[in-house]
Every structure is written in structure tokens, then in C-alpha cells.
Write a structure and sequence with these properties.
Layout (H helix, E strand, L loop, with lengths): L12 H5 L4 E10 L2 E7 L6 E7 L7 E9 L10 E2 L1 H15 E2 L2 E2 L6 H14 L5 H16 L9 H13 L24 H27 L7 H4 L17 H10 L5 H10 L3 H5 L6 E2 L4 E4 L8 E4 L2 H11 L22 H11 L9 H13 L4 H8 L3 H8 L4 H11 L19
Parallel strand pairs: 4-5
Antiparallel strand pairs: 1-2, 2-3, 3-4, 6-7, 8-9, 9-10
Length: 431
């Protein structure tokens, strides 16, 4: 068993957080080719790794993620570990690797690579581990899960990727009892439907590549050639944003069920995402500043959304009689809105409002941004409201107010000072 090794740079949270954030772990040798490592990216919580090295074996180096570090969360001894607990868990892993004095490492399968990637993603504070787990189970594990990573071929991965792009999209539904997921029929002649399926295939390919690249970085596979040569579909991730006009928006609000109508209204008054609205509490409403504070966003950063007079009155009405910790927007029975519950409501509202094709909840965010841009607000202000970078806003919305962009350029672009030279061309005078 490895000895108890003290390390002032790894034992305490404050010391670890002073270390450079980087992909390569900070390794500390324990004994006989065994080491404990700590890896942290940017401001995320770090993770513990164990490394076994034996040049007489193949592979010579084996690395395993063993848990998250207790940088920001209290250790539980299972998934979140102190330095001492990480050493103990590493000792158990080293013991599992050895049998009769020799190194016994079964070939890594795609599924075990996905498991390691999911553990690493969770330890680094990934935003959606549940969604990642679902993607792996639905699209990667059934076809590639049992395959040995080192035996994968480029042709095999490319065939799998192409099959994803032509497969019928799965839909959210209750269990049918048949064991098969419910799917939706798509129009193969519709270019937008083809683009959407290719975009989905590209996102899943990105997950597979990330997991296999981690396996390579951890010394579990010798080369990345098999998946590196598989390229994503081109021009698949640039959907045409649907912008609803004010008349369509009003129809959509009126067509929503009374229970769901406040969510639609809140989205159009703030530009917030569905998940952000679900998490708003009464304490997040600052009536004096005329704003709501989004504490948890997709980017991980909090932001303040300034409200119009209409928006402030709307949220104040929903805060009446509630405690500071209560949710602002709930279902009729007081329950919180659940994940993905907005989809069916938006489908029904779109159908009732005669909006074809049906729009998603995210379109309401685009509608909010579009109204701001058309009103002449600077893109920097729109970006701050949405929690986006200004460049992203320019990409999606600058074309909605070309006059504003032209005026801004003419006002900011200083004269170059070029003097026109002499010319023998005489302008024709208007008669």
C-alpha cells in the first residue's frame, strides 16, 4: 500500500487553488511508478487522478480519474474527496490493477471510456451531466459501447456518424411498453430537417471524440487517428433563426394555457431561458432597481436583467403574498416547473395560434432580443441583457437594424485624410 505522503501544495483547498489551472495534472509521486494527481481547468473545481507506470508493460502508463476534489464542496468520501481520501482511493485502484504481482488491465471499451469521461465532466463542474448521460446511453452505447477503443476504425466511426444524421429523431414521451423509443417522422426533402439532423449528429460526434481524447490523454489508447479523421458535417450548425412579429407573439401568449401563459410572458419581457425563469425567486426581484437577477445561467455567471415598466409590474404581481425564498413562477398547484415541461406547452400554443412550424421556447428569447435591436439599442446592451458576448449578438441580430449599424460605423470611423488627386474627368452638371 502506498505510504501516506504529505504535500503542502495539494493537501489544502487554498494551496490547490493557487496552482496553475491546466489540462496536465500536477503529479506527486507516491512510490514505485505510482502517483497521485490533481487537475483543474479555469475556475472549475479540480479532480483527483491516479497514475500507474511500468515500462515493461503495455500500456506502460495507466491513468484513472478517482473523484472530485473538495475545492468548493464538502467531501463525502465517495465522489468528492479530500487529499487523504484520494490517496486511499488511489491505493484501492492500484491494488485492483495488480494480480499475482503482474499488471492486469482489460482493454478499454468505448463504454468504459464514456464512463471515465462522464466522471471527469462531473468532477470539472459540467453544466449538464444528466443530458450527457442520456446522450451516451441513447446514441453511443447501443452501437459502439462494447467496441474496444484501440480497435475502432475511421470507417466504422464515420458510418456510425452518418447513420445518426439519417435516423428518425427521438421525441420526449412516456414509456410505450415496447422497449423502443418513440420517434418522429421527418420530411427527407426538407433541407432544414436534414440540417437539423446533421447538427445533432455533429454534437454527438463531439461527445465521442472528447471521451476518446481523454482516454488517449490518460494513456489508455495509443493513437487518435481513428476518430480524428472523421470530420463533422459542414454548414450544419447554422440554423435560420425564426423571428416572430408582434402580432404573432400576442397570438402565442393568448393561445398558451392559463397555467403556462406567465412563463411565455416572462420570457418575452426578459429574454431569459426556460431554466432561468424556473429558478427565479421573489428575492431575485429588485423593485428599486427595476431588475431581476439570474443567479444560475447557462454560462455559469450571474447577471441582472433590467425590466421595462411592464415587466416590473408583471413580476411584482407574481410576487404578492410570497416569501423571499418562494419561486416567482410556478404551476397552478404551486409546484415548480420541471425540466423539459415547456415543449408540449409550446407545441399546443403554436398550434392554437396557427404558427407553423411550431416554435420552441428558445424562440421567445430571440424575439426579445430582436425587439431590442429593432428599437435601436446598442448590441452591447442587448448582449448584457441576454448574458451573451457582443459578437454572438452581432452574429444573430445585427441584420435586423442595418441602419443602426451603418450610422454607428459612419460616426466612429475617422477620416483617413486621403486627398483626391487631379483628374481630367469633368463631372456632368445636372441641367
Amino acid at each position: 500500500m502506498p505510504r501516506r505522503i504529505r504535500d503542502e501544495k495539494l493537501e489544502t483547498r487554498s494551496a490547490r487553488l493557487r496552482l496553475q489551472a491546466r489540462r496536465e495534472p500536477h503529479w506527486r509521486s507516491i512510490q514505485g511508478g505510482r502517483a497521485i494527481g490533481y487537475r483543474r481547468l479555469a475556475s472549475k473545481s479540480g479532480s483527483w487522478l491516479a497514475r500507474y507506470y511500468d515500462p515493461t508493460r503495455t500500456p506502460a502508463r495507466v491513468i484513472q480519474v478517482i473523484g472530485a476534489a473538495d475545492d468548493y464542496a464538502e467531501a463525502d468520501g465517495r465522489s468528492v474527496l479530500t487529499y487523504a481520501q484520494a490517496l486511499a482511493k488511489a491505493a484501492d485502484w492500484f491494488a485492483d490493477l495488480t494480480e499475482n504481482g503482474g499488471l492486469v488491465i482489460p482493454p478499454m471499451t468505448v463504454q468504459s471510456a464514456m464512463d471515465a469521461y462522464l466522471a471527469d465532466y462531473t468532477a470539472r463542474g459540467g453544466k449538464d451531466p444528466t443530458g450527457l448521460r442520456t446522450t451516451i446511453a441513447a446514441h453511443i452505447q447501443p452501437t459502439l459501447g462494447k467496441r474496444i477503443v484501440g480497435e475502432l476504425t475511421t470507417a466504422e466511426i464515420r458510418k456510425w456518424h452518418q447513420a445518426l444524421a439519417t435516423a428518425a429523431p427521438r421525441i420526449r414521451s412516456k414509456a410505450t411498453g415496447t422497449g423502443k423509443p418513440a420517434t418522429r417522422v421527418i420530411d427527407r426533402t426538407n433541407p432544414e430537417a436534414t440540417r437539423a439532423r446533421r447538427a445533432t449528429a455533429n454534437r454527438i460526434l463531439t461527445v465521442l471524440k472528447a471521451a476518446l481524447n481523454l482516454a488517449y490523454a490518460d494513456g489508455r489508447v495509443a493513437s487518435t487517428d481513428a476518430w480524428r479523421k472523421v470530420k463533422p458535417f459542414r454548414e450544419a450548425d447554422a440554423p435560420k433563426v425564426r423571428f416572430l412579429d408582434d402580432a404573432e407573439l400576442l397570438r402565442l401568449v393568448n393561445a398558451a394555457t392559463p397555467e403556462f401563459r406567465p412563463m411565455v410572458t416572462a420570457a418575452l419581457l426578459t429574454g431569459c431561458r426556460y431554466g432561468e425563469l424556473c429558478g427565479l425567486c421573489v428575492a431575485d426581484l429588485d423593485a428599486n432597481a427595476g431588475a431581476v437577477r439570474v443567479r444560475i445561467s447557462k454560462s455559469g455567471k450571474a447577471r441582472s436583467v433590467t425590466l421595462s415598466a411592464e415587466g416590473l409590474a408583471f413580476f411584482q404581481a407574481h410576487a404578492i403574498g410570497k416569501a423571499a425564498s418562494d419561486l416567482l413562477l410556478t404551476r397552478n398547484d404551486g409546484r415548480a416547473w420541471g425540466k423539459s415541461e415547456q415543449h408540449r406547452h409550446m407545441q399546443r400554443a403554436s398550434k392554437a395560434a396557427k404558427i407553423t412550424p411550431a416554435v420552441s421556447f428558445h424562440i421567445l428569447r430571440h424575439a426579445y432580443a430582436a425587439r431590442l435591436v429593432k428599437a435601436g439599442l446598442p448590441l452591447g446592451v442587448v448582449a448584457a441583457q441576454l448574458g451573451h458576448a457582443e459578437a454572438i449578438c452581432a452574429k444573430h441580430y445585427a441584420h435586423l437594424n442595418p441602419g443602426f449599424v451603418a450610422d454607428a460605423i459612419r460616426a466612429a470611423f475617422a477620416p483617413l485624410g486621403v486627398q483626391p488627386g487631379e483628374s481630367n474627368v469633368t463631372p456632368i452638371r445636372a441641367r
